[in-house]
Design a protein that fits this description.
The protein is of the alpha/beta class and about 400 residues long. It has two domains: about 130 residues, Alpha-Beta Complex (Aspartate Aminotransferase, domain 1); about 220 residues, Type I PLP-dependent aspartate aminotransferase-like (Major domain) (Aspartate Aminotransferase, domain 2). The protein has 13 helices and twelve strands. The strands form three sheets. A seven-stranded mixed β-sheet has the order 2-8-7-6-5-3-4, sandwiched between helices. A three-stranded antiparallel β-sheet has the order 9-12-11. The longest helix has 21 residues.
Length: about 400
Amino acid sequence: MMTVQPSPTIAITRLANELRRQGRDIIGLSQGEPDFDTPDHVKEAAKAAIDAGQTKYTDVDGTPEIKRAIVGKFARENGLSYDISQISVGTGGKQVLYNAFCATLDDGDEVIIPAPYWVSYPDMVRLAGGKPVIVACGEEDGFKLTAERLREAITPRTRWLVLNSPSNPTGAGYSAADLRALANVLLDHPHVMVMTDDMYEHIRYDGWAFSTIAAIEPRLLDRTLTCNGVSKAYAMTGWRIGYAGGPEKLIRAMATLQSQSTTNPSSISQAAAVAALTGPLDFLTERNAMFKTRRDLCLAAFNDIEGLSCRTPDGAFYLFPSCAGMIGRRRPDGRAIETDIDFATFLLEDAGVAVVPGSAFGLAPYFRISFATATDKLRSACERIEEACGKLSR
């Protein structure tokens, strides 16, 4: 446990809450949670499940109903063919990923994680006894892993490659061509499994097309765990339902592990997720349009601030601006901005805006904001950040 750090996003939120208790007006842009409500048809399905008495234990890793809904979703939306015996359902996407690592990693097994990465990947690997192998993927490569870097990172101890598209924290998305290039490398290394985290699949912009690697290269299907959930697209973060499709042997091992930890996910949440996965997706059009408006508002603001720059994301609801131009400047109190952590701390203390430093995601000097919040708050936050940056002297 001494090697594991608490989630930096939660730590920033905790500090921001402490400042709020002190009377400060803090705009929180650190947590990735849609401000939209769960769709009505999903809520109604949950109420109906309660009224019908669906409040008992279910199968450990998901009811037959939710597994059938997931099989249908994978076939309909991703061109992937699974049997219900190849489906795992957990209490949020994080549990599904963690179960997979615990079920497969021996001490010293390596997991390739492109950086910037979601903050939980490396620590989940460490908790399972594995070794995270961090591969820096700079802005010059669109924050994406290249085939050459993947080939260099693979060793005989490599057990997994983790891919997240669109990405948290950058919003970068792997195209079909990107995935084809990575797949060609993986075909030469049959001992390497692939974990794809597709949680932000439906949140995308500017015509960018989502792809997942097992569909691009069917020969990888039997060693790919395709992970997803209902949290982001359906605004169901609190319902805690994640799922995955993968090799039956792995799914059985994950179920055994889950049977001795949490047992089944909430029966009511599973019923709600069935409605989400089998229901309409038309509500996403309006929500994605709103996300795009917010994205463009913040992009324009940050790119107009001297010392900041930001790449346009393909999907998700994050921006990952570079603050390299701020390193070396001084705060009004004379303290130097030496790292992105210093810069994030300055924004919180001076501007009252909570962001997450890029070093938490394995790449500095950057910072992440979530634009999944009210537009007026985002506008105010951008104005505060601009004013605060103007106070920094060279």
